[in-house]
Amino acid sequence: MNKENQSKIIELVRQTKPLIFQEMTHEKVTEKGAADYVTNVDVAVQKYLKEALGNEFPDIALIAEEKENLGMDPDKSYWILDPIDGTTNLIRDYHLSAVSLGLYENGEITFGVVYNPFTEELFYGAKGEGAYLNGAPIQVSDQPEFKDAVVSFGSSPYEKNRAKELFPIFYNIFMNCADFRRTGSAALDICYVACGRQHAYLEQNLKPWDYSGASIILREAGGTITDWGNKELPYLANSDILACVPQFRKILLKLINV
Ligand code: IPD
Ligand code: CA
Fold it and tell me: Which residues cross the membrane (predicted)?
């Protein structure tokens, strides 16, 4: 993806802001599953970006959260889109929600944009070209000691049946780090590791659109992202996610897999 196309995509993502605010004036919430919501905002943003990206890049198909996620072929190129990551936050007026877009090609993510229209923070990263927040280069934290680490976790709200095995893992980590956060947006969590606000983020069984776009932003900022067994991410399938600064990877893997 050349610079000109990168700018075009960033601009398209930014253009969702008035649409998001407009749609929020007549918000309608539907429950897809337990604690799993979709609103007219999610649907409108997805429709807008599907059309806009389709017009600019007709050869790249879209995979997106709202009923646009069937038939993934690893040999093809895709946009992977979460129109609103942090839908519960959107409904509750937390202002921690983001449009998250990744470009999957040749088995990896080569470009990603994560945009929070409430804070006007736009993160992007391109393979081999660095990661940026509102145009300024970002880097992960070089803090040396895990006891000073801020770790963010996802509570897997749609899978409460797994909470009994999950929370002891969080407990182990909590007892060894400085403190926890729970933002409610996986994409923002990964970007917050990328820009040094926190040192790690972990969650079980995330969907491709939750982690793909942000993964390249983190890598380009010097961070690492794998599954909980330290394996490469699948991008077109669900995965447990461990996003962290390199110096805390070993200790986190140990605490997760005791
Ligand atoms: C959710 C958020 C949340 C995470 C959930 C995701 P959504 O995405 O990223 O932080 O805990 O697992 O599904 O549903 O708001 O797009
Ligand atoms: Ca979503």
Answer: none
Fold of 3-137: Fructose-1,6-Bisphosphatase; Chain A, domain 1 (3.30.540)
What number does the ligand 1 atom closest to the CA of 209 have? 16
The Å distance, Cα 13 to ligand 2 centre, comes to: 15
Mean per-residue pLDDT pooled into runs of 10, the chain (258 residues): 96 98 95 90 97 96 86 90 97 97 97 98 98 98 98 94 96 98 98 98 97 98 98 96 98 96
For the chain, where are the E strands, in sequence order? 29-33, 36-39, 61-64, 78-85, 98-105, 108-116, 121-126, 130-133, 136-137, 150-153, 179-181, 200-206, 224-226, 239-244
Domains of the chain, by residue range, sit at 3-137, 146-256
The reply to whether the predicted model has a pTM over 0.85 is yes
Burial zone of 253 (CB within 10 Å; 0-12 exposed, 13-18 middle, 19+ buried) = middle
| CATH architecture under which domain 146-256 falls | 3-Layer(aba) Sandwich (3.40)
CA of 161 to the centre of ligand 2 (A): 21
Residue nearest (by alpha carbon) to ligand 1 atom 11: 154
